[in-house]
Amino acid sequence: MTIENIICEIEASSDEYYRLTVSSYEAQSGLWLAKCRFRRTDSGEQIGGCVVSEKSQLLALISLSAKIKSELAELARPPHEWGRVALRVLLKDYRQLDVELTEILFKLQKSREAGTLSKEELHRGHWNARTLAIAGGIKFSHRLAMPSEQDRIDLMTSPEPVYQDAVINPWYLDDLNSRDSLFEFIIDPSAEVILAHEGHQARMAKGGQ
Fold it and tell me: What pLDDT, on a 0 to 100 scale, did the predictor assign at position 130?
């Protein structure tokens, strides 16, 4: 069995709901990592994945192939909120903004710990974060003014399985936090939207109960 065959076999496991993509690389001498990402076919967002490490690229891909079967079996079919592309893309785009802002902080922290953080780098990080935050605030406020009232209410409420399994599923935890944060971008929310958001926060605090 060749490396190319294993990759093709894994990616051929894609179906109408999920698209699988595989990558592998040598992290250090004698240690290979193989990764698989699961993306929804409707919204394109990544909702899961797995990674393994082995002594060779071939062994890593073989291990990955075996692990993927169990990971795929746990995914909902169809995925939660299937077909509601606008809502899912909104969550996806917010998560991307959050990742970009966090990366700026991590970079500054890394420089600080190494003792190489200059005044110029600190200022550059501040202004980059500020620019991203302002642009994101404007973009999401406009986008959240466009959906219907029911869409905004639905956006404030995670699918039921998310509340139940967020403690052990980091992708579900992202869903909870993203919906909570997006409330801040809704201009003059209605009483129903506020109530939905408060209910969401209450369930988050109680671990989904």
Answer: 95
The Cα–Cα gap between 16 and 91 comes to: 21
- The alpha carbon of 136 is separated from its chain's Cα centroid by a whole number of angstroms, namely 17
Digit-coded pLDDT (tens) for 106-116: 999 999 999 99
Residue 88: which of 47, 138, 36, 148 has the closest Cα? 47
Report the side by side order of strands in the sheet with 18-28: 18-28, 31-40, 46-54
What is the pTM assigned to this prediction?
Answer: 0.86
Which tokens sit at 109?
A: 């922290």
Place of tokens 């409330």: 183
As a whole number of angstroms, the distance between CA 68 and CA 72 comes to: 6
21 with 11: CB under 8 angstroms?
Answer: yes
Going by the DSSP 8-state scheme, the letter that residue 184 receives in this structure is: G
The separation between CA 167 and the C-alpha centre of its own chain, rounded to angstroms, equals: 15
- pLDDT per position as a tens digit, 136-191: 999 999 999 988 999 999 999 999 999 998 888 888 999 999 999 999 999 999 99
